[in-house]
Amino acid sequence: MGPLYKYGWFDFAYSLQLAGLIGFCFGFLLERAGFGNPRKLTSIFYLRDFAVLKVMFTAIIVCMVGLLYFSVLGWIDLSRIYLLPTYIWPQIVGGLLLGIGFVMGGYCPTTSVVATVSGKLDGLIFVVGMILGSLVFGEIFPALQHFYESGSMGAVTLPQVLNIQSGVIALGVCLMAVIAYWLVEKVENRFGDPETLPGGSRRAKLTAAGVIVALGLILAIVNPDKIAATRKHAAPVAANSEQSLVSPSAPAGESEQGGAIIVEDEGC
Amino acid sequence: MEKERYANPYVIGALLGLVLLFTFYTMGRGLGSSSTFARIAVAIVHAIAPGHAKSNPYFSKYLGGPHSPLMAWLVFLTMGAGLGGLFSAFISRRVKGEVARGPSIGISARLWLALFGGMLSGFAARMARGCTSGQALTGASELAFGSWVFMFCIFAGAYGTAVFFRKEWL
After folding, report:
1. ipTM score over 0.90, yes or no
2. Do B123 and A96 touch (CB under 8 A)?
3. The model scores a pTM over 0.80
């Protein structure tokens, strides 16, 4: 039962090695997609190349669908996954500012790292800028604190806010993604450079779209929330026995395994 | 625009989704990177003026543990991302010292915009408690409400101001 770390399968030191490995894959994939190149990244804002949207939406639906199936199959306890809390006002303002920073500077935080290592001086300057920006935020934090904590809604999800079960929301996200892909490809073909746009057969795309929608539809019918709720009673027992089997020295809970260090910035 | 062929974005997106799923399954958390830069900032302030760093209510959040503020999961993830990006750029012979910019903007103007864009992004990521990966990608996959709002706000902010930076890129 996942998440493995929360069930004491490995310690903090090992988790850092894992972070390096996961990061390696992350950076590798971003560079493969061309996201170390700010002209490739920003061309989405000039309607020429929507690779950013395609990568992001595809990653989101694959992971979202995967998490819900894992939950249905009992492989992961979603309630043990750190859920980013919602502070609606700072998130709206932060999002708008990050968008402006993106089109002005040419990168978002992770892609600027990829650009820096591939030799781009502007990427390095962007990284320096981010460190300075964080510094400024910290220095004026006392004045911002009130706003920073405004609009707090707790760790809420889209299904909770809309009061619709996760499976139906997942289906909605899948449908939205497929429609977005179709739409942006129309726009790209009109404004973009056909030589740099990716190919791909129409048949493969239609098949993929069909699979995405079918997976969402199954989730909508199965109702992962209900299944997770019925399983909840059994979970803690299994968790404790599993934990004592794997790491008998670690006490129950997450206090020992470097939790104090991680809790601070979980998520961001 | 250089005529450069990159990998198919749908394929990359699907693989990235699997990496993210693996991260959730093993760690119970998602990807991220922006707090790495906040931690670097804290480490610098702490090295120069430890008292000032400890008395600041925001910086002190990162100084609570027994280790340096850089001894954190996301810092290692970001270092890994640097290595992975380097490996990919290396095998495609894309490692090249340059200032990436459109044909109608000078080098110094581009670097100033990169600096200000970076500052704005660093500030914004702290404000929103995450960036494109830590908030938008990770939060949206777990259907966090604020992350979805945040993601659409990124697009709104960028599309709304893109016209002012047209000369920088096209």
Report:
1. yes
2. no
3. yes
